[in-house]
Amino acid sequence: MRLPAGLRGASWSIVDQGVYSLSNVLLAVLVARQVSAEEFGAFSTVYILYVCSQGVNEGIHGEAFSVAYSAADARHRRHMLAGAAGSALVFGAVLGLACVALGAVVPGPIGELLPVLGAVLPGLFLQDLWRFALFAEHLPRAAALNDVIWGGGSTLGVIVLAQTSFDTVGWFLAAWGAAGAVAAVVGCVQLRVVPDLRRARRWVPEHAGLGLRYAAEFMLLYGTTQVVVLFLGAIAGLDEVAKVRGAQILFGPMYALYAGVRVAATPRLVRAHAGAPERTGPLVRRIAGGLGAVTLVWGLVVWSLPTSVGEALLGDSWAGTEGVLGLMTWSAVAGGIGFGFVVGLRALADARSSLSARATVAVATLTLGCLGAVLGAARGALGGVALAESGGVGVYGRAFARADRSAATPTA
Asked: What pLDDT, on the 0 to 100 scale, is given for residue 13?
């Protein structure tokens, strides 16, 4: 199968995303093996807070920068990057202080971990921005190397700490964050950019039309998924949740692919649109179709796994997960196609249409997913989500087509 240019160009971003995802999975595994169930539960809770805050940071800084400046001249792009970097540091510091304050009033192991998370957020936020910037600067290998430094450093740090008296979840979290800070410093060297704190306060107001909407999109997407799963658990039990989570784990490589395509394809499409706007539509449709096709192939592969392989991957959860893989494939294929059109809206810098489409699909996902959970537990929930994602293909496709026509219409 010949992949469209946007996917072929995403190869290093997929490597980068794979390293990023693998390092976080390894961290969770290593922590789970070393600490008590209560401590691991606290770590997992704090990590969810990190994912939420990082998603908001990514929208405000990384995505907004990629959309706004990938087609700018190099000097201006790096000038604006310095301001974005300063803003990311300040944003991380503000949220970090909030974590410290929250840790003072939350009892137990969660309260003990919150100040540690707060201390490492600025460096982690800066490192995430560098990933987007390195692709905007045509340096995909450097982006992958930067994540290798973070992932390798954090894994090594946890392994070393596990052999000492500092084998606690707090020290593990600190090692992970410290490795991210080292990668952030390396990113400064790779890009030859120093964060400009003097311009930090201007970044968010000047880019609110993009950044705040992208952050809201993330919260809609992430929040809706979590609510459906939590609702499923509340009415049908944890065994049904395990079926859905098992399917999500097996489709993890596809989520990494989507994230990689977004990081790599957005600057390429932004530059293509600036040079030849008529090429944007065909390129985006090829990316959307390519994502759907690759996801379908992956779903068929997963669906045909022998029982022995499935049990080796998911243990006792495989028996339940196997029965929902068809629905998960349907949902993921539709989601992949829709995601391709979302990337196209990024290229057109039409954050308003993108957020509106996301909100529409989020409402449908929440409604149909929860209704399906009531009617058919895990299968019903995934069926409802798949219906919503299928409708989302039309919603995202129409939103992109309108935005593309509008961008191609000459202004008086």
From this structure: 66
pLDDT digits (tens, 9 = 90+) for 315-334: 888 989 999 999 999 999 99
80 and 57 within one domain:
yes
The residue out of 171, 206, 241 marking a domain boundary is: 206
Question: Which DSSP state fits 35?
Answer: S
Q: Residue length, the chain?
A: 412
CA distance 152 to 190: 18
Judged by DSSP in three states, 412 sits in: coil
Boundary residue ending a domain (188, 206, 224)? 206
Lowest mean pLDDT among 155-159, 203-207, 230-234, 329-333: 155-159
Domain identity same for 234 and 125: no
Residue 62 carries which DSSP code? I
Name the H helices within 70-199.
74-105, 108-136, 140-162, 169-191
From the list 270, 173, 259, 261, the residue with the least C-alpha distance to 222 is: 259
Question: Cα(215)–Cα(323) distance, rounded to whole angstroms?
Answer: 34
Q: Are residues 45 and 102 in the same domain?
A: yes
Residue pLDDT, tens place only, 94-121: 999 999 999 999 888 889 999 999 999 9
CB within 8 Å of 83: residues ≥ 6 apart: 196, 199, 200, 202, 203
